[in-house]
């Protein structure tokens, strides 16, 4: 039986940033909500733990692709909510296009017949 979950080593570099930005297209969220949205949207394939998540969020904030502010969460705790910036939206559009090209190239390679011998 294969394990459907991908660990952080299974994600291509930059993919986590793209997944975070995509999640924030749906609206502002705090870290736990972002990780749960990625998990649910990927049908439990991607489980993003706090170890890689928060450094990625800080990196995106430093690049001004996301903006963060402190708010009170639904369970009355203080949480940092992240919001996609216009620059983040443009960056996501470019990265989505590049990722689609990468997926198509890998798919073509996997279907191609190699010359043996």
Describe this structure in words.
Helices cover 52% and strands 14% of the residues. It has 117 residues and is an alpha+beta fold. The two termini are 33 Å apart. Strands 1-3-2 form a 3-stranded antiparallel sheet. The protein is built from 4 helices and 3 strands. The chain has one domain (8-109): Winged helix-like DNA-binding domain superfamily/Winged helix DNA-binding domain (Arc Repressor Mutant, subunit A). The radius of gyration is 17 Å and the shape is elongated.
Give a short summary of the structure.
The protein has 117 residues and is of the alpha+beta class. It has helices at residues 15-25, 31-41, 50-62, 86-111, and strands at residues 29-30, 66-72, 78-84.
Q: The biggest beta sheet, please?
A: 3 strands, antiparallel
> What's the CATH H-level homologous superfamily?
Winged helix-like DNA-binding domain superfamily/Winged helix DNA-binding domain
Low-confidence stretches: 5-9
Count of extended strands: 3
CATH architecture: Orthogonal Bundle
Described by the principal axes of the CA atoms, the overall outline is elongated
Structural class: alpha+beta
Query: Please, how many domains?
Result: 1
Q: With helices defined by DSSP (H or I, 4 residues minimum), what is the helix count? A: 4
Strand content: 5-15%
From the 3D structure, determine the CATH topology.
Arc Repressor Mutant, subunit A
Distance separating the two termini: 33 Å
Rg, rounded, reads 17 Å
Mean pLDDT: 88
């Amino acid at each position: 039986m294969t394990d459907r979950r991908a660990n952080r080593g299974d994600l291509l570099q930059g993919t986590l940033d793209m997944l975070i930005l995509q999640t924030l297209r749906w609206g502002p969220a705090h870290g736990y909500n972002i990780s749960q949205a990625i998990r649910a949207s990927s049908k439990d394939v991607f489980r993003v733990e706090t170890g890689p998540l928060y450094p990625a969020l800080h990196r995106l904030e430093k690049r001004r692709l996301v903006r963060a502010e402190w708010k009170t969460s639904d369970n009355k705790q203080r949480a940092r909510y992240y919001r996609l910036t216009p620059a983040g939206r443009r960056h996501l559009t470019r990265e989505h296009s590049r990722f689609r090209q990468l997926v198509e190239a890998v798919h073509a390679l996997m279907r191609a017949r190699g010359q043996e011998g």
